[in-house]
Design goal:
With about 260 residues, the protein is an all-alpha fold. Helix content is about 45%, strand content about 0%.
């Protein structure tokens, strides 16, 4: 007869089992990839790193003057807007023919939607336990493609932006009290001068301000008629009398 053959074992709940271990969860070090406890070890380190970066950011903010521009002028149609650095890649995308004009919906919704949708789906498409990027090609590929695309578009936006014109159009200049009901200002508006120099005559898009020019009426009339620098000749279409009124109006503008 073999040992144990035909034998039955009956357990009795009233008899305590010897050597039973208490129901204690395993130590965190026994789990793969876990090197420390989340609370408080890991979370405390995250808070400390965040505090260091926050203090550094506050020090930079206090040490550097913010690059403020002049007050927005709705009548300045030549103003070239520029978003903050983290939106430059989307700004550059809208410059391409396939994502601008009648195809704006592609640049605004379709392409960004597909890109960010792919990033959101990456963790679900690659659910492997590996932590090394080389062993997670799908998630790594999505991330590298996104970083490369954002970097390239941001660089293109910065490289092709007219920084000199942007500096002039946003430059804060002295304000002057302008009589918008005067004949000189009405002639100024009628000849389209407001398009480049702005309704407050502070300039923009490469055009200089017309306040505190230090020019005589004759010099102003000469420039308005024959142009100067980037300003072509023949823009003024009024009579000689209107030109004289305009020249006197501009030459007398002085900041307060």
């Amino acid at each position: 007869m073999h040992r144990g053959k035909g034998m039955k074992f009956v357990g009795d709940s009233r008899v305590p089992a010897s050597g039973r271990k208490p129901n204690i969860p395993k130590d965190y070090s026994e789990y793969p990839g876990k090197t420390e406890a989340f609370w408080p070890n890991f979370l405390l380190k995250e808070w400390l790193i965040g505090a260091v970066f926050l203090v550094g950011f506050l020090c930079l903010t206090a040490a550097h003057q913010p690059p403020l521009e002049k007050i927005a002028d709705p009548s300045d149609t030549a103003y070239i807007p520029l978003p903050d650095w983290y939106f430059l890649f989307l700004y550059q995308l809208l410059k391409y023919s396939f994502a601008s004009g009648p195809y704006n919906i592609i640049g605004v919704l379709v392409i960004p939607g597909l890109a960010f949708g792919a990033l959101l789906l990456a963790p679900f498409l690659d659910r492997g336990p590996e932590r090394r990027p080389s062993k997670r090609p799908l998630a790594t590929g999505f991330m590298l493609l996104a970083v490369a695309g954002i970097t390239y578009l941001t660089w293109e936006s910065v490289a092709h932006h007219d920084w000199e014109a942007a500096k002039l159009q946003g430059q804060i200049v002295a304000e002057a009290e302008i009589d918008t009901e005067s004949d000189g200002y009405k002639i100024f508006e009628a000849n389209g001068c407001v398009t480049c120099h702005g309704g407050d005559l502070q300039g923009g898009a490469g055009s200089p301000p017309l306040i505190d020019t230090g020019l005589t009426p004759e010099e102003v009339a000469e420039i308005a008629k024959n142009g100067q620098g980037a300003m072509p000749a023949g823009l003024f279409q009024g009579t000689d009398e209107e030109l004289q009124i305009l020249a006197e109006f501009i030459s007398t503008l002085e900041s307060e």
